[in-house]
Amino acid sequence: MGSLDGKVALITGAGRGIGREEALFFAAEGARVVVNDPGVEPDGSGGDRGVAAAVAEEIVRAGGRAVADTGSVARWEDARQMVETAVEAFGDLHIVVNNAAVERNRALPKLAESDFDEVVGVKLKGTFAVSHWAARHWRERRAAGDRVDRAIVNTTSGSGLLNPLPAQTGYAAANAGVAAMTVVHALELRGWGVRVNAVSPSMVRTRLTRDVPGMPPAPADGAHDPLHPRAIAPVAAYLASPDCPFTGQVFSVRGTTVTRNQGWTAAERVTGDDAPWTVESLARALGALPRHDPFEALLTTLAAALGPAARDTLHRDIDALLT
Ligand SMILES: NC(=O)c1ccc[n+]([C@@H]2O[C@H](COP(=O)([O-])OP(=O)(O)OC[C@H]3O[C@@H](n4cnc5c(N)ncnc54)[C@H](O)[C@@H]3O)[C@@H](O)[C@H]2O)c1
Protein backbone atom coordinates (compact mmCIF):
# COMPACT_ATOMS: atom_id res chain seq x y z
CA MET A 1 0.00 0.00 0.00
CA GLY A 2 1.56 3.30 -1.11
CA SER A 3 1.23 6.63 0.69
CA LEU A 4 -0.35 8.16 -2.46
CA ASP A 5 -2.63 5.28 -3.51
CA GLY A 6 -5.60 6.53 -5.53
CA LYS A 7 -4.21 10.06 -5.91
CA VAL A 8 -3.74 11.91 -9.20
CA ALA A 9 -0.67 14.18 -9.24
CA LEU A 10 0.37 16.83 -11.74
CA ILE A 11 4.13 17.46 -11.50
CA THR A 12 5.57 20.34 -13.51
CA GLY A 13 9.10 20.26 -14.89
CA ALA A 14 9.01 16.49 -14.29
CA GLY A 15 11.13 15.50 -17.27
CA ARG A 16 14.47 15.99 -15.58
CA GLY A 17 16.24 16.57 -12.29
CA ILE A 18 14.19 16.84 -9.11
CA GLY A 19 10.80 16.76 -10.89
CA ARG A 20 11.64 13.53 -12.70
CA GLU A 21 12.55 11.83 -9.42
CA GLU A 22 9.35 13.14 -7.85
CA ALA A 23 7.31 11.69 -10.72
CA LEU A 24 8.95 8.25 -10.39
CA PHE A 25 8.61 8.29 -6.59
CA PHE A 26 4.97 9.46 -6.62
CA ALA A 27 4.11 6.70 -9.10
CA ALA A 28 5.90 4.11 -6.93
CA GLU A 29 3.81 5.37 -3.99
CA GLY A 30 0.63 4.63 -5.98
CA ALA A 31 -0.17 7.99 -7.62
CA ARG A 32 -1.25 8.37 -11.23
CA VAL A 33 0.98 11.07 -12.64
CA VAL A 34 0.75 13.81 -15.25
CA VAL A 35 4.39 14.33 -16.22
CA ASN A 36 4.60 17.93 -17.46
CA ASP A 37 7.73 19.19 -19.19
CA PRO A 38 8.35 21.02 -22.49
CA GLY A 39 11.97 19.79 -22.34
CA VAL A 40 13.63 23.20 -22.51
CA GLU A 41 17.25 24.16 -21.94
CA PRO A 42 18.23 25.48 -18.47
CA ASP A 43 17.62 29.06 -19.69
CA GLY A 44 14.19 28.21 -21.09
CA SER A 45 15.19 28.11 -24.75
CA GLY A 46 14.49 25.23 -27.16
CA GLY A 47 12.24 22.29 -26.32
CA ASP A 48 12.14 18.51 -26.61
CA ARG A 49 8.75 16.82 -26.44
CA GLY A 50 10.40 13.45 -25.80
CA VAL A 51 11.61 14.41 -22.31
CA ALA A 52 8.19 14.19 -20.61
CA ALA A 53 7.18 11.18 -22.69
CA ALA A 54 10.30 9.25 -21.61
CA VAL A 55 9.46 9.67 -17.91
CA ALA A 56 5.80 8.73 -18.45
CA GLU A 57 6.91 5.62 -20.37
CA GLU A 58 9.35 4.68 -17.59
CA ILE A 59 6.50 4.84 -15.07
CA VAL A 60 4.21 2.74 -17.27
CA ARG A 61 6.96 0.17 -17.92
CA ALA A 62 7.37 -0.18 -14.14
CA GLY A 63 3.63 -0.95 -13.83
CA GLY A 64 2.42 2.54 -12.91
CA ARG A 65 0.10 4.97 -14.67
CA ALA A 66 1.25 8.24 -16.22
CA VAL A 67 0.63 10.58 -19.14
CA ALA A 68 2.96 13.17 -20.62
CA ASP A 69 2.15 16.87 -21.07
CA THR A 70 4.48 19.24 -22.90
CA GLY A 71 2.85 22.60 -22.10
CA SER A 72 4.63 25.53 -20.50
CA VAL A 73 3.56 26.53 -16.99
CA ALA A 74 4.22 30.14 -17.99
CA ARG A 75 1.37 30.02 -20.52
CA TRP A 76 -2.07 30.51 -19.04
CA GLU A 77 -3.85 28.24 -21.50
CA ASP A 78 -1.22 25.49 -21.16
CA ALA A 79 -1.63 25.58 -17.38
CA ARG A 80 -5.41 25.19 -17.75
CA GLN A 81 -4.86 22.31 -20.17
CA MET A 82 -2.56 20.47 -17.71
CA VAL A 83 -5.30 20.34 -15.12
CA GLU A 84 -7.77 19.22 -17.78
CA THR A 85 -5.36 16.50 -18.93
CA ALA A 86 -5.26 15.09 -15.38
CA VAL A 87 -9.04 15.07 -15.15
CA GLU A 88 -9.49 13.57 -18.64
CA ALA A 89 -6.84 10.88 -18.14
CA PHE A 90 -7.53 9.93 -14.52
CA GLY A 91 -10.88 11.45 -13.53
CA ASP A 92 -9.66 14.04 -10.99
CA LEU A 93 -6.63 15.94 -9.70
CA HIS A 94 -5.55 15.73 -6.05
CA ILE A 95 -1.93 16.93 -5.99
CA VAL A 96 -0.04 19.69 -7.78
CA VAL A 97 3.74 19.81 -7.49
CA ASN A 98 4.95 23.14 -8.88
CA ASN A 99 8.57 22.32 -9.67
CA ALA A 100 9.38 23.90 -13.07
CA ALA A 101 12.09 26.56 -13.22
CA VAL A 102 14.66 28.13 -15.50
CA GLU A 103 17.69 30.23 -14.62
CA ARG A 104 19.32 33.20 -16.29
CA ASN A 105 22.02 34.31 -13.91
CA ARG A 106 23.30 37.73 -14.90
CA ALA A 107 24.41 40.78 -12.94
CA LEU A 108 21.91 43.63 -12.76
CA PRO A 109 23.39 45.85 -15.49
CA LYS A 110 23.50 42.87 -17.87
CA LEU A 111 20.10 41.39 -17.04
CA ALA A 112 17.73 42.00 -19.96
CA GLU A 113 13.98 42.49 -19.54
CA SER A 114 13.45 39.21 -21.41
CA ASP A 115 15.76 37.36 -18.95
CA PHE A 116 13.77 38.63 -15.97
CA ASP A 117 10.42 37.89 -17.64
CA GLU A 118 11.43 34.33 -18.56
CA VAL A 119 12.68 33.39 -15.08
CA VAL A 120 9.80 35.02 -13.20
CA GLY A 121 7.33 33.78 -15.82
CA VAL A 122 8.20 30.12 -15.28
CA LYS A 123 8.77 30.04 -11.51
CA LEU A 124 6.42 32.66 -10.10
CA LYS A 125 3.69 33.09 -12.70
CA GLY A 126 3.87 29.37 -13.52
CA THR A 127 3.24 28.42 -9.89
CA PHE A 128 0.34 30.86 -9.78
CA ALA A 129 -1.12 29.70 -13.12
CA VAL A 130 -1.15 25.97 -12.38
CA SER A 131 -2.40 26.50 -8.81
CA HIS A 132 -5.13 28.83 -10.11
CA TRP A 133 -6.55 26.26 -12.53
CA ALA A 134 -6.26 23.50 -9.94
CA ALA A 135 -8.10 25.68 -7.40
CA ARG A 136 -10.89 26.33 -9.91
CA HIS A 137 -11.27 22.59 -10.44
CA TRP A 138 -11.26 21.98 -6.67
CA ARG A 139 -13.88 24.70 -6.14
CA GLU A 140 -16.18 22.84 -8.55
CA ARG A 141 -15.53 19.52 -6.85
CA ARG A 142 -16.16 21.05 -3.45
CA ALA A 143 -19.46 22.54 -4.66
CA ALA A 144 -20.42 19.07 -5.90
CA GLY A 145 -19.95 17.72 -2.35
CA ASP A 146 -16.44 16.30 -2.72
CA ARG A 147 -14.46 16.32 0.58
CA VAL A 148 -11.27 14.55 -0.59
CA ASP A 149 -7.86 15.67 0.78
CA ARG A 150 -5.83 17.68 -1.74
CA ALA A 151 -2.41 19.30 -1.70
CA ILE A 152 -0.10 21.71 -3.47
CA VAL A 153 3.65 21.33 -3.05
CA ASN A 154 5.53 24.36 -4.34
CA THR A 155 9.26 24.50 -4.92
CA THR A 156 11.31 27.42 -3.73
CA SER A 157 15.03 27.98 -3.16
CA GLY A 158 17.42 29.16 -0.50
CA SER A 159 18.41 31.72 -3.13
CA GLY A 160 15.12 33.49 -2.49
CA LEU A 161 14.93 32.81 1.24
CA LEU A 162 18.02 32.37 3.39
CA ASN A 163 20.83 33.18 0.96
CA PRO A 164 19.91 35.37 -2.00
CA LEU A 165 22.87 35.10 -4.37
CA PRO A 166 24.44 37.74 -6.61
CA ALA A 167 23.35 37.54 -10.29
CA GLN A 168 19.99 35.97 -9.37
CA THR A 169 17.64 38.98 -9.41
CA GLY A 170 14.78 37.15 -11.12
CA TYR A 171 15.40 33.71 -9.64
CA ALA A 172 15.70 34.96 -6.03
CA ALA A 173 12.70 37.28 -6.36
CA ALA A 174 10.57 34.56 -7.92
CA ASN A 175 11.48 32.02 -5.25
CA ALA A 176 10.78 34.48 -2.44
CA GLY A 177 7.44 35.14 -4.15
CA VAL A 178 6.67 31.42 -4.28
CA ALA A 179 7.28 31.16 -0.52
CA ALA A 180 4.88 34.07 0.08
CA MET A 181 2.34 32.54 -2.32
CA THR A 182 2.58 29.25 -0.40
CA VAL A 183 1.30 30.96 2.75
CA VAL A 184 -1.37 33.00 0.89
CA HIS A 185 -2.74 29.89 -0.82
CA ALA A 186 -2.60 27.85 2.41
CA LEU A 187 -4.79 30.49 4.05
CA GLU A 188 -7.21 30.69 1.12
CA LEU A 189 -7.65 26.98 0.42
CA ARG A 190 -7.73 25.71 4.00
CA GLY A 191 -11.54 25.55 4.07
CA TRP A 192 -11.58 23.26 1.03
CA GLY A 193 -9.28 20.66 2.57
CA VAL A 194 -6.33 21.76 0.39
CA ARG A 195 -2.96 21.98 2.13
CA VAL A 196 -0.23 24.11 0.54
CA ASN A 197 3.45 23.70 1.47
CA ALA A 198 6.80 24.13 -0.25
CA VAL A 199 10.09 22.30 -0.50
CA SER A 200 13.31 24.25 -0.80
CA PRO A 201 15.97 21.94 -2.26
CA SER A 202 19.57 22.75 -1.42
CA MET A 203 22.71 21.70 -3.32
CA VAL A 204 20.96 18.99 -5.33
CA ARG A 205 23.03 17.55 -8.16
CA THR A 206 21.15 18.58 -11.34
CA ARG A 207 22.10 20.51 -14.46
CA LEU A 208 21.19 23.75 -12.62
CA THR A 209 23.94 23.20 -10.03
CA ARG A 210 26.53 21.59 -12.31
CA ASP A 211 28.73 24.70 -12.30
CA VAL A 212 28.23 25.72 -8.65
CA PRO A 213 31.74 26.00 -7.18
CA GLY A 214 32.39 23.56 -4.35
CA MET A 215 29.67 21.08 -5.41
CA PRO A 216 31.23 17.75 -4.31
CA PRO A 217 31.67 15.15 -7.05
CA ALA A 218 29.13 12.32 -7.28
CA PRO A 219 30.27 9.24 -5.33
CA ALA A 220 31.47 6.14 -7.14
CA ASP A 221 28.85 3.97 -8.87
CA GLY A 222 26.29 2.48 -6.55
CA ALA A 223 27.30 4.44 -3.44
CA HIS A 224 24.59 6.44 -1.68
CA ASP A 225 24.61 10.04 -2.93
CA PRO A 226 22.88 12.37 -0.43
CA LEU A 227 22.84 15.15 -3.07
CA HIS A 228 21.05 13.05 -5.70
CA PRO A 229 17.78 14.68 -6.90
CA ARG A 230 15.82 11.75 -5.48
CA ALA A 231 16.55 13.15 -1.99
CA ILE A 232 13.69 15.65 -2.45
CA ALA A 233 10.98 13.22 -3.60
CA PRO A 234 10.06 11.59 -0.23
CA VAL A 235 9.65 15.04 1.34
CA ALA A 236 7.39 16.22 -1.50
CA ALA A 237 5.41 12.95 -1.28
CA TYR A 238 5.00 13.30 2.48
CA LEU A 239 3.72 16.88 2.09
CA ALA A 240 1.29 15.64 -0.56
CA SER A 241 0.06 12.64 1.45
CA PRO A 242 -3.32 12.73 3.21
CA ASP A 243 -1.79 12.10 6.65
CA CYS A 244 0.43 15.21 6.52
CA PRO A 245 -0.84 17.79 9.02
CA PHE A 246 1.23 20.74 7.72
CA THR A 247 0.05 23.67 5.67
CA GLY A 248 1.66 27.03 4.84
CA GLN A 249 5.17 25.72 5.59
CA VAL A 250 8.46 25.76 3.72
CA PHE A 251 10.85 22.86 4.32
CA SER A 252 14.49 23.04 3.19
CA VAL A 253 16.02 19.73 2.16
CA ARG A 254 19.77 19.20 1.99
CA GLY A 255 20.76 15.56 1.71
CA THR A 256 19.03 13.81 4.59
CA THR A 257 18.44 16.99 6.62
CA VAL A 258 14.95 18.50 6.47
CA THR A 259 14.52 21.92 8.08
CA ARG A 260 11.31 23.84 8.64
CA ASN A 261 11.92 27.47 7.71
CA GLN A 262 10.51 30.55 9.31
CA GLY A 263 9.90 33.64 7.17
CA TRP A 264 11.01 37.18 7.73
CA THR A 265 10.83 37.85 11.45
CA ALA A 266 10.70 41.22 13.19
CA ALA A 267 14.08 42.09 14.66
CA GLU A 268 15.20 45.22 16.54
CA ARG A 269 12.76 48.13 16.75
CA VAL A 270 12.74 51.78 17.71
CA THR A 271 9.64 53.68 18.76
CA GLY A 272 9.46 57.47 18.61
CA ASP A 273 7.79 59.77 21.08
CA ASP A 274 4.62 61.62 20.07
CA ALA A 275 6.41 63.91 17.60
CA PRO A 276 6.95 62.60 14.05
CA TRP A 277 10.36 61.17 13.25
CA THR A 278 12.87 63.42 11.51
CA VAL A 279 15.72 62.12 9.40
CA GLU A 280 18.12 63.23 12.16
CA SER A 281 16.23 61.55 15.03
CA LEU A 282 15.86 58.35 12.99
CA ALA A 283 19.55 58.40 12.17
CA ARG A 284 20.31 58.59 15.90
CA ALA A 285 17.83 55.83 16.88
CA LEU A 286 18.29 53.37 13.97
CA GLY A 287 22.00 54.18 13.71
CA ALA A 288 22.48 52.76 17.22
CA LEU A 289 21.16 49.33 16.21
CA PRO A 290 23.55 46.47 15.40
CA ARG A 291 24.54 46.21 11.70
CA HIS A 292 23.67 43.14 9.64
CA ASP A 293 25.67 43.10 6.42
CA PRO A 294 24.17 40.71 3.81
CA PHE A 295 27.63 40.34 2.28
CA GLU A 296 29.05 39.06 5.57
CA ALA A 297 26.04 36.75 5.99
CA LEU A 298 26.63 35.28 2.53
CA LEU A 299 30.36 34.88 3.22
CA THR A 300 29.62 32.96 6.40
CA THR A 301 27.12 30.69 4.63
CA LEU A 302 29.42 30.01 1.69
CA ALA A 303 32.38 29.33 3.94
CA ALA A 304 30.30 26.86 5.97
CA ALA A 305 29.06 25.06 2.85
CA LEU A 306 32.08 25.23 0.57
CA GLY A 307 35.09 25.77 2.82
CA PRO A 308 37.10 28.83 3.86
CA ALA A 309 38.41 29.49 0.31
CA ALA A 310 34.93 30.79 -0.63
CA ARG A 311 35.61 33.83 1.57
CA ASP A 312 38.58 34.85 -0.59
CA THR A 313 36.85 34.45 -3.93
CA LEU A 314 33.46 36.07 -3.28
CA HIS A 315 34.67 39.70 -3.65
CA ARG A 316 36.50 38.77 -6.83
CA ASP A 317 33.51 36.84 -8.24
CA ILE A 318 31.10 39.71 -7.65
CA ASP A 319 33.48 42.24 -9.22
CA ALA A 320 33.84 39.96 -12.24
CA LEU A 321 30.06 39.65 -12.55
CA LEU A 322 29.55 43.40 -12.64
CA THR A 323 32.24 44.29 -15.19
N1 LIG B 1 19.10 21.76 -7.94
C1 LIG B 1 19.09 22.45 -6.80
O1 LIG B 1 20.03 22.37 -5.98
C2 LIG B 1 17.95 23.37 -6.49
C3 LIG B 1 18.12 24.27 -5.41
C4 LIG B 1 17.05 25.10 -5.08
C5 LIG B 1 15.86 25.01 -5.78
N2 LIG B 1 15.75 24.15 -6.84
C6 LIG B 1 14.46 24.13 -7.53
O2 LIG B 1 14.12 22.78 -7.84
C7 LIG B 1 13.31 22.75 -9.03
C8 LIG B 1 13.86 21.75 -10.01
O3 LIG B 1 15.17 22.15 -10.40
P1 LIG B 1 16.24 21.13 -11.01
O4 LIG B 1 17.51 21.43 -10.32
O5 LIG B 1 15.70 19.76 -11.03
O6 LIG B 1 16.35 21.71 -12.50
P2 LIG B 1 16.27 21.00 -13.95
O7 LIG B 1 16.67 22.02 -14.93
O8 LIG B 1 17.01 19.71 -13.91
O9 LIG B 1 14.72 20.65 -14.10
C9 LIG B 1 13.77 21.67 -14.31
C10 LIG B 1 12.77 21.17 -15.34
O10 LIG B 1 11.77 22.20 -15.53
C11 LIG B 1 11.43 22.20 -16.89
N3 LIG B 1 10.83 23.48 -17.29
C12 LIG B 1 11.47 24.64 -17.58
N4 LIG B 1 10.60 25.57 -18.00
C13 LIG B 1 9.36 25.00 -17.95
C14 LIG B 1 8.06 25.47 -18.24
N5 LIG B 1 7.86 26.70 -18.72
N6 LIG B 1 7.01 24.63 -18.04
C15 LIG B 1 7.21 23.37 -17.55
N7 LIG B 1 8.44 22.87 -17.28
C16 LIG B 1 9.51 23.68 -17.48
C17 LIG B 1 12.73 21.93 -17.63
O11 LIG B 1 12.53 21.45 -18.96
C18 LIG B 1 13.41 20.91 -16.71
O12 LIG B 1 13.19 19.58 -17.15
C19 LIG B 1 13.29 24.19 -9.55
O13 LIG B 1 12.11 24.80 -9.13
C20 LIG B 1 14.49 24.84 -8.88
O14 LIG B 1 14.30 26.24 -8.71
C21 LIG B 1 16.76 23.34 -7.21
Automatic annotation (TrEMBL):
Gene3D superfamilies with a match to the protein in the record: NAD(P)-binding Rossmann-like Domain
Residues spanning the signal sequence: none
InterPro entries named in the record: KR_dom, NAD(P)-bd_dom_sf, Peroxisomal_Beta-Oxidation, SDR_fam
SUPFAM superfamilies xrefs: NAD(P)-binding Rossmann-fold domains
MF terms (GO), sorted A to Z: oxidoreductase activity
Keywords tagged on the record: Oxidoreductase
Span of domain Ketoreductase: 7-202
Keyword Oxidoreductase attached: yes
Domain of life of the native organism: Bacteria
PANTHER family, A to Z: DEHYDROGENASES, SHORT CHAIN, SCP2 DOMAIN-CONTAINING PROTEIN
Family affiliation: Belongs to the short-chain dehydrogenases/reductases (SDR) family.
Protein name (Swiss-Prot/TrEMBL): SDR family NAD(P)-dependent oxidoreductase
Organism expressing this protein natively: Bailinhaonella thermotolerans
